């Protein structure tokens, strides 16, 4: 397994989210230090850097246009940037609440909408919001029933199948002396291959995996470091722990 390490300690503070561009050559980083940065995966240099009015919690590339990127802020606002116009965001929207937007996902074009309309899903603790840009209505709408499931903690999207998966936890009030426990994780016995990463100085905040027919790319994001692990694909599922 080949490993490539990107160090962002000198330019970033508390990395919060990472998204690899569809072409695989650029990385989009959201930072609690009020920065949204575009990093070259080849040179490890900062290509663009945007100053933000609040801490960034999430980011996303646009699947319809390579020029647009998005970031969700701690105060519930959503910013739209055009990388051809670097001075300021082209749009700034208020969310439905002031809760941090912890996930931003660009959706594939909806054929039922007019040409040029871009769609997003965002998630905060209160639920999921759907956005359309480039049309007559650009206000977010709450995805039905998502506000009744509990506290939304994660959101994922598969473009190839157009499926969305959201995770929720129950809304509970806990006293200060109440113990918190969680189930242990059991490794799957059906895995054909396994790799173990070196111990980290800081906790791993985000892990993402992408693959094609010949290889797989695993990214691990901590507060000051991005690690990329490239592994040639073998028959059967692969795992890296």
Automatic annotation (TrEMBL):
Q: E3 ubiquitin-protein ligase RFWD3-like WD40 domain: which residues?
A: 12-174
Pfam family example for this protein? WD40_RFWD3
Quick one: where is this thing mainly located? Answer: nucleus
Q: What is its EC number?
A: 2.3.2.27
Q: Name one GO cellular component term.
A: nuclear body
**Class in the EC hierarchy, top level:** transferase
BP GO annotations: interstrand cross-link repair; protein ubiquitination
Enumerate the InterPro entries for this protein. RFWD3 (IPR037381), WD40/YVTN_repeat-like_dom_sf (IPR015943), WD40_repeat_dom_sf (IPR036322), WD40_RFWD3 (IPR056527)
The record's SUPFAM superfamilies line, in alphabetical order, gives: WD40 repeat-like (SSF50978)
Q: From the Swiss-Prot or TrEMBL record, state where the protein is found.
A: Nucleus, Nuclear body
Question: This protein's superkingdom?
Answer: Eukaryota
A GO MF label: ubiquitin protein ligase activity
**Catalytic reactions on record:** S-ubiquitinyl-[E2 ubiquitin-conjugating enzyme]-L-cysteine + [acceptor protein]-L-lysine = [E2 ubiquitin-conjugating enzyme]-L-cysteine + N(6)-ubiquitinyl-[acceptor protein]-L-lysine
Any idea what this protein is called? RING-type E3 ubiquitin transferase
């Amino acid at each position: 397994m080949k490993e490539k390490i990107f160090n962002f300690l000198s330019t970033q503070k508390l990395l919060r989210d990472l998204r690899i561009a569809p072409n695989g050559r650029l990385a989009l980083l959201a930072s609690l230090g009020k920065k949204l940065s575009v990093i070259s995966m080849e040179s490890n240099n900062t290509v663009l850097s945007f100053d933000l009015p609040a801490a960034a919690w999430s980011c996303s590339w646009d699947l319809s246009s390579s020029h647009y990127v998005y970031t969700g802020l701690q105060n519930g606002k959503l910013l739209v940037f055009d990388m051809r116009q670097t001075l300021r965001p082209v749009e700034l929207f208020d969310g439905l609440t002031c809760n941090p937007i912890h996930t931003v996902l660009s959706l594939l074009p909806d054929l039922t909408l007019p040409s040029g309309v871009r769609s997003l899903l965002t998630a905060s603790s209160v639920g999921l919001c759907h956005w359309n840009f480039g049309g007559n209505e650009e206000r977010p709408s709450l995805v039905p029933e998502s506000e009744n499931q509990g506290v939304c903690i994660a959101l994922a999207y598969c473009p190839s199948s157009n499926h969305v998966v959201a995770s929720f936890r129950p809304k509970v009030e806990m006293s200060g002396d109440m113990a918190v426990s969680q189930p242990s994780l059991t490794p799957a016995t059906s895995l054909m291959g396994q790799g173990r990463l070196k111990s980290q100085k800081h906790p791993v905040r985000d892990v993402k995996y992408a693959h094609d027919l010949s290889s797989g790319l695993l990214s691990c994001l901590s507060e000051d470091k991005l690690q990329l692990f490239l592994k040639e694909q073998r028959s059967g599922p692969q795992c890296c722990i």
